[in-house]
Fold this protein.
Amino acid sequence: MHGHGSAFDDGVIPSDLWKVDVRSAIEHSGFEAWFQPIVSTSNGRIYTLEALSRWSHPVHGIVTPGHFLSSIERMGLIDAFTDHMMTHAMDALSLMRAQGHSDICVSVNAPWNWLASRNNVQSMAEAMSKRGIPTRCLVFEAVEHTPPSDLAATVLNATTIKDLGFMLAMDDFGSGFNSLELVRHIPFDAIKIDRSLVHRSSEDHRAETIVCALVDLIHGVGSTVTLEGIERASEFDMAQRIGADAAQGYLIGRPSPLGHVMERIVGKPPGA
């Protein structure tokens, strides 16, 4: 492997990967959290790190979620896996706060059904309190690929999430199932426009028009906007031009272990 790449970047999945005990990997911290910065388009400052899962496979090295997440879901372990990632997020917040960077939040992907459980959210609030971390420092990113099985319960628990002080975001807006009903009923703090809409939109007038309209729509319901998949300077310029609040993508920074991200963060004074 080179740099922070995956052993499976070529898309070939060795058959023996599926024989590895995924449950054991969860229980014994085989899954790591790498972090990708999200920056403000107004000043370029990192204000959130998204925690992204990586499997530190004993044979094949670092494996990205596309090669294991569906297996975790089929095995019924997605809640345990999400809990595991939440712990990594809290660890990162604790470390950053200890180093004087309490202004940076961490976001974590969470399935809709996990978010619909009052017990999950309440347990997270208690865990954050024990660590002395304000709940506003943690952002739940609702994964949009599958709809919530119980929309009414999801909407109700969104109120609980907000009342407890957590931030709530919608991930990958514009992909997967129709999410406009959720935008209508749930007061998201932030909505992230999917990379499939953002990619090369700075070079395509029709695509940019669509993204611009989505930015206006999202602002109209009171949420901030993050453009995902920013890979070119022209795309970042577009994000600024159309009024997006934040940007995320390889141009900003690739996912990497927290230590690598901290080397970039410590380049600014604590709290600046």
About this structure: Residues 1-16 have pLDDT under 50 and may be disordered. The chain has eleven helices and nine strands. The beta strands are 31-40, 46-57, 61-63, 105-110, 138-142, 167-173, 190-193, 224-227, 246-247. The domain at 15-194+253-265 is CATH 3.20.20.450 (TIM Barrel).
